[in-house]
Each structure stands twice: as structure tokens, then as C-alpha cells.
Amino acid sequence: MSFNNQGMKASYTPDEFSHVRSRQHFLLRSFEQQVLQGLHRIRSLWMATRTTRINALPGLCREFGISVATGRRNGLVQISRVLFDPETAVRH
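The chain above was modelled as a monomer; its predicted structure follows.
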């Protein structure tokens, strides 16, 4: 007998399936609730990739010999100063 990731059997007889199906609860959401949930999901994914990009910046700067602080605020401020400073050897 094999189970899926929710602890349910992978295959049921028709009688078993109707019994399992009757125990499942389905939440009906309004259109607005679905839109809001979608926006939250997109924001969550965006924040995860944003964090990844911000964490990659100091490493990339170190490859070019630029020492910057880690962290969102300090690191981004230092990186922007270095990039826009005409005295640095960083090419635009």
C-alpha cells in the first residue's frame, strides 16, 4: 500500500474514494480573497528572490576587490557609493 505526501493512499476503490472524499473540506473563497492570496504569494516569492540577490552582491563585489558590508542597508549604500564614485576603478 503506498501513500502520498498527505498520508492518504495513492489509489482507492470507488467505495473508499467516496468515503475519503466526503471527509475532505473545501474552502470556497470569493474572487477578492483569491486575488489577495495571489498577491501575497507573489510578494512572498519576490521577497525571497530579493533577499537572494541582495546576499549575492557583496560576494560579487569581493570578486572585483571591493570590500563592502553585508546586510541590506549598509551594503547597498556602500555599493552605490563605490559604483558612482569617479575615483574608483569600477567601469560603468
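Residues 2 and 80 are 55 Å apart (CA to CA).
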